[in-house]
Design goal:
By secondary structure, this protein is an alpha+beta fold. It is built from 20 helices and ten strands. Strands 1, 2, 3, 4, 5, 6, 7 and 8 form an eight-stranded mixed beta sheet that branches. Strands 9-10 form a two-stranded antiparallel ribbon. Strand 2 and strand 3 form a beta hairpin. The longest helix has about 35 residues.
């Protein structure tokens, strides 16, 4: 694979830069070693986690920490940490594989993801050398468990609205913390917390706070809808004295820590939800194959086949986007290393470059899993509403993912906010292609036929991008700076971009599978063409709502005509395609793509 080609796609650049199947990393490209790591993760869940789900949900004392200890012994906690700090030094794609394959672990996956990500990475990437050497080897082994304390009662999505304060003591040796944090994952057993507070009332900063520090206390475990086995408590700071050497990063730069760590966290959440979705597809397929109604398995019914296939299609979409992006980040990280950038700027810089994709992935993964488990409950029928069947736990546990790491609404708005800000700063040129689309609207459509393989599908993707550029460009021209207050329009365009990113990732993967003779290539093409057909309708709907909200008269009619042209697709029998996909699911009894 051409590594330079991979790195040519800049963050958000999929919208305006060409991609080829050869330059697209897919799950089929994983190495044998990476597949073995994935298998080890699945075996760990089968042996250590799934048999104890009831005890985990009951928060049996010491059970979750002991599971994290075992995960640490297998290298799951420090896999992506540098060897220097007790980790295994694995690359970003391998770290993503671990997150995905531990993802079906319900509350355990929440605990391990919080520890590996937001519980450890702030110290790894913003700590001093002394801080790293003190904490990272113990976090990598599991001897110490990590947690992240950002959210407060009055500040959810508005993280910078925090009211927790930090005041330097008279002798200059300590910061005195006062305030409250809520929804702190792993709080009940964590040994070290990354805590955000304002110095002098306005300098948003981060601190490393150890368990047992005088003045630190906790509330009782929260009673939650799902992820019941995940420890979630409030933290209270009452004249909590923190040594000045435990300041993390620079004074007043806490937002850099918080927001950069969230970029990685969003991709990791997509990976975990993808793992859950794959298992959900398998559970529903197995049940549908054995559950009989009217003397036949319910899997023979068209309505059930539609559900199973759509579950697999949405999972395939998330799968394709995730590893495409993970490889981009991995390549960017290596490029920054080769440029001589310090360790603290490599992965964080790479993740920041692809922050737009990370925001979209968070939405894609969480909503794919929500769809899978919701339809899973429906396939199980009354049994799906019973705790005797694990699908009910999966349903409850899934719901939090649309809130974690920034709500999906926030991530949709962030997607467009980042696009517009990067365009204004010259990081990405949206204006040139947007102006080209405006000229295209006034031109006569090209009705010539291109008989090269997949030309029709590739043209559909190109037209989807034109629809996005038309709507976004038109909205910016009409509304200028007021557009930031038109959240509905921004979310409409974000939905168009999210559908297009999935569609393109699926198509490039499917073509690559076809070119490489993959045994599931036909199924991948069926999944992709079905998604394209449905996405065209969704993009048309979102585009129409956006256009109608910011323009009227002849200009509106012209844009709506252009939208209709850009979302036109050839007729495709999605029913038969879904039936073919379901037949393969029933044959394999699992999510069968790599």
């Amino acid at each position: 694979m051409d590594k330079q080609a991979l790195s040519r796609i800049k963050g958000g650049g999929f919208l305006i830069q060409p991609s080829t199947p050869e330059d697209t990393f897919t799950p089929e490209d994983l190495t044998e070693e990476q597949r073995m790591i994935a298998q080890t993760c699945r075996e760990f869940l089968e042996k250590e986690v799934w048999p104890k789900l009831v005890e985990i949900d009951a928060q049996e004392p010491g059970l979750m920490p002991s599971l994290l200890d075992k995960a640490g012994a297998l290298g799951f906690l420090g896999a992506a940490f540098p060897v220097k700090y007790g980790g295994l030094g694995e690359d970003f794609v391998t770290a993503t594989i671990i997150n995905e394959n531990l993802g079906p672990g319900h509350s355990f996956s929440v605990a391990v993801s919080a520890h590996n990500g937001i519980g450890s990475l702030p110290i790894l990437y913003f700590g001093t050398e002394e801080q790293k050497m003190k904490y990272m080897p113990k976090l990598a082994s599991g001897e110490m468990k990590g947690a992240y304390a950002l959210t407060e009662p009055g500040s959810g999505s508005d993280a910078l609205g925090a009211k927790t304060t930090a005041t330097l003591s008279a002798d200059g040796k300590q910061y005195i913390l006062n305030g409250q944090k809520i929804w702190i994952t792993n709080a009940g057993f964590a040994d070290v917390f990354t805590v955000f507070a304002k110095i002098d009332g306005d300098k948003f900063s981060a601190f490393i706070v150890e368990k047992g520090t005088p003045g630190l206390s906790m509330g009782e475990e929260e009673h939650k809808m799902g992820i019941k086995g995940s420890s979630t408590r409030q933290l209270f700071f009452e004249d909590c004295k923190i040594p000045v050497e435990n300041l993390l990063g620079e004074i007043g730069k806490g937002h850099i820590i918080a927001f950069n760590i969230l970029n990685i966290g969003r991709l990791k959440l997509c990976a975990a939800t993808l793992g859950g979705a794959k298992r959900g597809v398998g559970m529903a397929t197995e049940y549908a194959a054995t559950r009989e109604q009217f003397k036949v398995p319910i899997a023979t019914f068209g309505a059930i086949q539609h559900k199973l296939a759509e579950m697999a299609i949405r999972t395939f979409a998330a799968d394709s986007c995730l590893y495409r992006t993970a490889k981009w980040i991995d390549e960017k990280e290596h490029a920054l290393v080769n440029e001589g950038k310090p360790d603290s700027e490599t992965l964080l810089g790479a993740a920041e470059e692809y922050a737009i994709e990370c925001a979209m992935l968070k939405v894609i993964g969480s909503e794919a899993l929500d769809f899978v488990v919701d339809e899973g409950v429906q396939i199980f029928g009354g049994n799906g509403f019973s705790d005797e069947y694990n699908v009910s736990r999966a349903y409850r546990d899934s719901r939090i993912n649309r809130i974690f790491e920034g709500t999906n609404e926030i991530n949709r708005l962030l997607t467009m906010d980042m696009y517009l800000k990067r365009a204004m700063k010259g990081r990405i040129d949206l204006m040139t292609p947007a102006m080209a689309v405006q000229k295209d609207l006034l031109s006569i459509p090209d009705f010539g036929e291109d008989d090269t393989p997949f030309a029709e599908e590739l043209k559909v993707i190109a037209n989807f991008k034109k629809a996005i550029l038309m709507c976004a460009g038109g909205a910016v021209q009409k509304l200028m700076m007021k557009i930031e207050h038109e959240q509905e329009i921004l979310m409409n365009v974000a939905d168009m971009a999210i559908d297009t990113f999935q569609a393109e990732s699926m198509l490039l993967r499917a073509i690559k599978m076809q070119n490489n003779g993959n045994e599931y290539a036909t199924m991948a093409l069926d999944a992709t063409r079905t998604f394209l057909s449905d996405a065209a309708d969704r993009i048309n709907h979102s585009g129409k709502n956006a256009i109608n909200a910011f323009v009227d008269g002849d200009e509106q009619r012209m844009m709506l005509m252009g939208l209709k042209r850009f979302t036109k697709t050839a007729s495709f029998n999605t029913k038969d395609a879904r039936r073919r996909i379901t037949a393969k699911l029933l044959e394999t009894k699992r999510y069968f793509f790599a």
